[in-house]
TrEMBL record, chain B:
Localization per Swiss-Prot or TrEMBL: Cell membrane
Pfam families: BPD_transp_1 (PF00528), BPD_transp_1_N (PF19300)
UniProt membrane topology term: Multi-pass membrane protein
ABC transmembrane type-1 domain segment(s): 97-317
Keywords on record: Cell membrane, Membrane, Transmembrane, Transmembrane helix, Transport
Main location: membrane
Protein name, entry field: ABC transporter permease
Automatic annotation (TrEMBL), chain C:
Mode of membrane association: Peripheral membrane protein
Similarity field: Belongs to the ABC transporter superfamily.
Species assigned in the record: Actinospica acidithermotolerans
ABC transporter domain boundaries: 17-264
Secretion signal span: none
Main localisation: membrane
UniProt lineage: Bacteria, Bacillati, Actinomycetota, Actinomycetes, Catenulisporales
Subcellular localization(s) per the UniProt record: Cell membrane
Gene3D superfamilies referenced in this protein's UniProt entry, alphabetically: P-loop containing nucleotide triphosphate hydrolases
Protein name per Swiss-Prot or TrEMBL: ABC transporter ATP-binding protein
Length: 315, 327, 382
């Protein structure tokens, strides 16, 4: 008997209770939502390739330093050596080995990006869910505040504040704080829009009828249903953070020596092409692009996987 | 619509005043005009420093300083005096705005045309090789750090100039220090200076907009009214442009209006790299000069840009979509 | 122009669909949305196509208009006045669409372009096929709005779609469809998205449009009540295939396919001479991905036997030449009532008989469409 594949999860073929009806021999393989998403993601070739490349970059940043023992802050006498066997990425004006510097820079850039992505998405999602759930004046005020964050020249404020706090050496935390302030409002808006429509659904009413409190409805019923968007937003935020960190480094804000980041590396080497040491400029830049590009593709693949509306064939 | 606009602008005045107060406190606490003078060599005497403090108004209480600033702005239309001698904040800001406007208008024109073409073509040819190729290119531009890309273009332009022995690309300033006489030569000079920064910003802006346009075009293409338009026997061209694009442009138009506010407040990085004395560089140098009134002036103008562009976005939306009523 | 001829079988063959199959490639494999549809539409007649959602009735009509997405694989033949439409160039199709064959879609809320005035969208349809001045097109547009029953047409013509109610919008769509006096109007679920109270009015406009233009009509619906009041002949579709075709009388009084019988049994009727219970068809239609051999209705069919699992029945002529059914046991169904074949659901089996009359009355009030079901022949025809 041929097996029947049904695309909608939980859909079963009923058997007739009528006399004379043969027992239906259909086997229904209901796919779980997770399986469907995973399968759709695997079909997105660019996203799959990006996932592999990104995994390699992560390995490079976190396992690489264990295998390549040169310190990223050790200043050798080899100044401006072009890439060769002893320094695969060459060295800079201070004789620092660029390979280990890039490893360390990638590492800290990734850590910053992941922390900012998790914190800003989580905060934004909860903020948006609360705003959308309560609606009315609460919503209006909360969204105006979010708008303020979206339109305010936060980078300018950050530079201005940095001007003052420079001495206090907590620049890494300030950086994470500023980046989070930049990214949470967009997450908030997306989740709010979804909650606005979700809260009208029957299951919310059912939960309320069963006596669930607001907090339970928001965290157990509304937010889990926006998980797809949350995952996509947090992924894309990683790419956004890496690029913004680079911009802030260029403006003199962010990670400081002896710590390093990819942004700081390109900033320090912005005249390297003119100076005849192009590798110092190209290599860290390519790593930034590699991370941002692969993350963007992964995010695109996830979006397609979670929301196949654009891919569906119209009949 | 005029009534609506006036009401919106009047409504935004209290918000603007409140935010200037907050900004004023922030600027007062973080931009100290004394900084450059405290580290002068040879050091200034205590009396000299005190007289400077009096000159900058630092001896007055904070609220008094804010009130002076506000009345100066409202009653006399001035941004206050600079800590620099012979530096007129209003004039400098005016020039910076003009320079940035040049950059922004050029950028938006090119980016918009590119975004609409790419967005429409990739939506119509969804999942074709062309779609994949342009999508990949778009993602690449989305993933480029502005400053890295700007430096790269600048270096390539210098190498191109050297290799060809020409001077096609100007990589510094918004115009030559001694611009040629005559209107056309001056225009050419400005264009030579514009190419690189405009291309940098346009390529980086178009990518996001074209994705946006592609998504809204795809939505429109799947809509029932497009099917009915075809069922009427209209030509594919008319269906695509009169019915499709007309609708698909609505979201992009408002998005571009909102993004313009951000561009107007200064493409700080691009302006810095090409040494354009626009809004972005104005802000950076104000911070470096530790000139609180300059910083205030910049922040105020930026806030006004945001408010005005938000209003324009809403007005455009109402003009383009008859279902939207301004209330 | 042609007179509307109630003796449709003497009319000229306008539209002929032969062995039409439509397949959509999807990630899960090919979906066979239409698996061999045959029908002929004669001048002036109304053909009702009935079936559940997903039975291929809309897809087959979109194929006629050439409006299926490019990914669809279409085979078979669709001829209009002898000319093959499949494979026709877009330019040639343009002159057919709206001019010869017009279409009305299901959802009037989204069928009209929100950014253009109703008048513009009507005039556009007229000007697409007529080389006339704009003022004349506008006059004709007002006239059309008047015909489909829109009050104050001269004023309404300058309003946007969002200023119209759903029923009024569907009338505008009907006016667009009749703008060029087409030979065929395809109405794809024209009343499904509307309130019951509005449905009858829109159906009235549709009938007016058909009579004014003398067009033949394909009326697609899942509502047997709508078909009963409008159609001359009925085509019942299941799982992408026609399973029964015949005159309205044949289909309603002498159905020969268990699915048709089931559909009728699940329809409330005012005219029942005893307290009738509705007999639902159990289960859901099969997925059109890799259908197993045999009759697709078999899993839901109370009459299914071993043969049904092995061999898919062909659409064969029953006792009258106009009436065909696709069932191995269609002869057994002659004269059978739905409740003789389908069981009631277990849950309401204990309902006292005396409730029947009241319930029939109530449902009759709610479903205006049910009123139009003609008198049943309780004896059966055979």
């Amino acid at each position: 008997m041929p097996s029947r594949v049904n695309t909608s999860a939980g859909d079963t073929l009923g058997t007739t209770a009528a006399p004379g009806a043969k027992a239906a021999e259909f086997t229904v393989r209901a796919r779980s939502q997770r399986q469907i998403v995973f399968r759709r993601f695997r079909q997105h070739k660019a996203a799959m390739a990006s996932l592999v490349v990104f995994a390699l970059v992560v390995l490079f940043a976190f396992v690489g330093p264990l295998l390549w023992s040169t310190s990223a802050s050790f200043m050798s006498n080899d100044i401006f050596t072009a890439p060769d066997a002893s320094h695969p990425f060459g060295t800079d004006s201070n004789g620092i080995d660029l390979l280990s510097a890039v490893m360390k820079g990638t590492q800290s850039s990734l850590i910053i990006a992941v922390v900012v992505s998790v914190v800003s998405t989580a905060f934004g999602a909860i903020y948006g869910a609360v705003s959308g759930f309560y609606g009315g004046w609460t919503d209006t005020i909360m969204m105006r505040i979010a708008d303020l964050f979206l339109t305010f020249p936060i980078i300018a404020i950050a530079i201005m504040l940095d001007n003052r706090f420079q001495a206090e050496a907590s620049s890494l935390w300030l950086l994470i704080f500023v980046l989070t302030a930049l990214f949470w409002p967009s997450a908030g808006r997306v989740i709010r829009a979804q909650v606005l429509s979700l809260k009208e659904k029957e299951f919310v009413e059912a939960a309320r009828a069963l006596g669930a409190r607001d907090r339970r409805i928001i965290f157990r019923h509304l937010l889990p249903n926006t998980l797809g968007s949350i995952i996509v937003i947090s992924t894309l935020t990683v790419a956004g953070t890496i690029l913004t960190e680079t911009a802030l480094s260029f403006l003199g804000f962010g990670v400081q020596f002896p710590n390093t980041s990819l942004g700081l590396l390109v900033t320090n080497n912005q005249t390297a092409i003119e100076g005849g040491h192009p590798w110092l400029f190209y290599i860290p830049g390519i790593f930034i692009i590699l991370i941002a590009l692969t993350i963007n593709f992964i995010g695109d693949g996830l979006r397609d996987a979670f929301d196949p509306q654009q891919t569906r064939v119209r009949a | 619509m005029l009534v609506y606009s006036v009401r919106r602008l009047i409504q935004s005045i209290p918000i603007l005043v409140a935010s200037t107060f907050v900004i004023f406190l922030m600027v007062a606490s973080s931009v100290d005009p004394m900084t450059p003078y405290l580290t002068k060599k040879p050091p200034l005497s205590a009396a000299q420093l005190d007289s400077l403090r009096v000159k900058f108004g630092l001896t007055k209480p904070l609220l008094q300083r804010y009130w002076d600033w506000l009345t100066g702005l409202v009653l006399h239309g001035t941004f206050g005096s600079s800590t620099q001698t012979n530096y007129h904040i209003g004039q400098q800001l005016g020039y910076a705005m003009e320079v940035t406007l040049r950059l922004v208008v050029g950028t938006i024109l090119i980016a918009l045309i590119l975004a609409v073409i790419v967005g429409v073509v990739t939506a119509v040819r969804q999942y074709s090789k062309l779609d994949y190729a342009t999508t990949t290119i778009g993602f690449l531009f989305l993933s480029l750090p502005t400053f890295w890309f700007a430096v790269l273009l600048k270096e390539w332009a210098i190498q191109f100039n050297e290799a060809t022995g020409t001077h096609l690309f100007d990589t510094l300033w918004e115009s030559s220090p001694n611009p040629p006489a005559g209107f056309l030569p001056q225009l050419g000079d400005a264009a030579q200076h514009m190419i690189l920064p405009v291309v940098t910003l346009a390529l980086l802006s178009y990518a996001a907009w074209s994705r946006f346009q592609r998504a809204s075009m795809l939505e429109v293409l799947g809509s029932d009214y497009m099917r009915l338009a075809r069922a009427k026997g209209l030509s594919p061209f008319r269906v695509m442009f009169r019915h499709g694009l007309r609708n698909a442009l609505i979201p992009l138009t408002t998005q571009v209006a909102l993004d313009t506010a951000a561009l107007l407040s200064g493409a700080v990085i691009t302006e810095t790299i090409y040494s354009w004395r626009g809004m972005g560089l104005f802000f950076i140098s104000s911070i470096q000069m530790a000139d609180p009134n300059s910083v205030m002036a910049w922040l105020l103008v930026t806030a006004v840009f945001v408010i005005v562009m938000n209003l324009i976005a809403d007005l455009l939306y109402a003009v383009l979509d008859p279902r939207i009523r301004l209330a | 122009m042609t007179d509307r001829n109630p003796r449709f079988d003497s009319g000229e063959e306008l539209l002929a669909v032969r062995d039409l199959t439509v397949t959509f490639p999807t990630a899960d494999g090919d979906v066979q949305a239409v698996r061999g549809v045959d029908y002929v539409l004669r001048r002036g007649e109304v053909l009702g196509i009935v079936g559940e959602s997903g039975s291929g009735k809309s897809v087959s009509s979109l194929a006629v208009m050439g409006l299926l997405p490019k990914s669809a694989r279409i085979q078979g033949s669709i001829t209009f006045q002898g000319e093959e439409l499949l494979g026709l160039s877009e330019r040639k199709l343009m002159s057919v669409r709206g001019k010869k064959i017009a279409m009305i879609f299901q959802d009037p809320m989204t069928s009209l372009n929100p950014v253009y005035k109703v008048g513009f969208q009507l005039e556009e349809a007229i000007l697409a096929h007529n080389d006339i001045p704009k003022e004349q097109a506008r006059k004709r547009a007002v006239e059309l709005l008047e015909i489909v029953g829109i009050p104050f047409p001269a004023k309404r013509i300058d309003q946007f779609p969002h200023e119209f109610s759903g029923g009024m919008r569907q009338r505008v769509v009907i006016a667009i469809a009749m703008a060029n006096n087409p030979d065929v109007i395809i109405a794809d679920e024209p009343t499904t998205a509307l309130d019951v109270t509005v449905q009858a009015q829109v159906l009235e406009s549709l009938r007016t449009a058909q009579q004014e233009t003398g067009a033949a009509m394909v009326l697609i619906t899942h509502d047997l009540g709508v078909v009963a009041g409008q159609a001359d002949r009925v085509l019942v579709m299941y799982a992408g295939k026609p399973v029964e075709i015949g005159t309205v009388d044949d289909i309603y009084y002498n159905p020969r396919m268990p699915y048709t019988l089931g559909l009728l049994g699940s329809l409330p009727r005012l005219d029942a001479d005893r307290a009738e219970r509705l007999t639902p068809i159990q289960g859901t239609p099969p997925s059109l991905l890799s259908l197993p051999p045999g009759c697709p209705f078999m899993p839901r069919c109370p009459l299914a036997k071993d043969r049904c699992a092995e061999e898919e029945p062909e659409l064969l002529v029953t006792d009258t030449t106009d009436h065909s059914a696709a069932c191995h046991y269609s002869a057994l169904l002659a004269g059978k009532q739905a409740d003789e074949v389908f069981s009631h659901t277990a849950e309401d089996a204990a309902m006292p008989e005396s409730y029947g009359a009241e319930i029939a009355g109530v449902t009759g009030e709610v479903s205006a469409a049910a009123v139009e079901v003609p008198k049943p022949n309780t004896k059966g025809v055979s």
